[in-house]
Design a protein that fits this description.
By secondary structure, the protein is of the alpha+beta class. The chain has helices at residues 24-34, 77-90, and strands at residues 4-14, 18-19, 22-23, 39-44, 47-48, 56-57, 68-75, 95-103. Helices cover 23% and strands 39% of the residues. The protein starts with a strand and ends in a 6-residue tail after the last strand. The model has no long low-confidence stretch (mean pLDDT 88).
Length: 109
């Protein structure tokens, strides 16, 4: 029996990015939670790059700044369509990837 279809959105940003003088990653997660998105996570990368920038890596002595953060969330197509315009405004200039996925286990209910 095939799994149920859903949409997964991945947002690539930088830990220094802000929205209204607050960390963008936290503001996006708060927005998604307030909009009852089914599942979301922010992943702090240990190394990576965005666009044509140099590779940045995280060290215990780093005070933050340039390391990539990935936010991934999953929900129905209709729900993603509703929240995406605000996310595009909040994460202007960030890479946002949307893809159809199959839920192999669990449900959006």
């Amino acid at each position: 029996m095939p799994g149920r279809m859903a949409v997964q959105v991945t947002i690539y940003l930088n830990e220094a990015d802000q929205w209204r003088h607050r960390p963008l990653r936290i503001e996006i997660l708060n927005y998604l939670r307030n909009e009852n998105v089914f599942a979301a996570v922010a992943i702090h990368a240990i190394a990576g790059f965005l666009g044509r920038q140099q590779v940045k890596s995280s060290h215990l002595v780093d005070a933050g700044g340039g390391v990539p953060v990935i936010i991934i969330f999953v929900d129905s197509d209709e729900h993603v369509n509703r929240v995406l315009p605000q996310l595009k405004e909040m994460a202007a200039g960030c890479l946002i990837v949307r893809e159809n996925v199959i839920l192999e286990q669990g449900s959006l209910a």
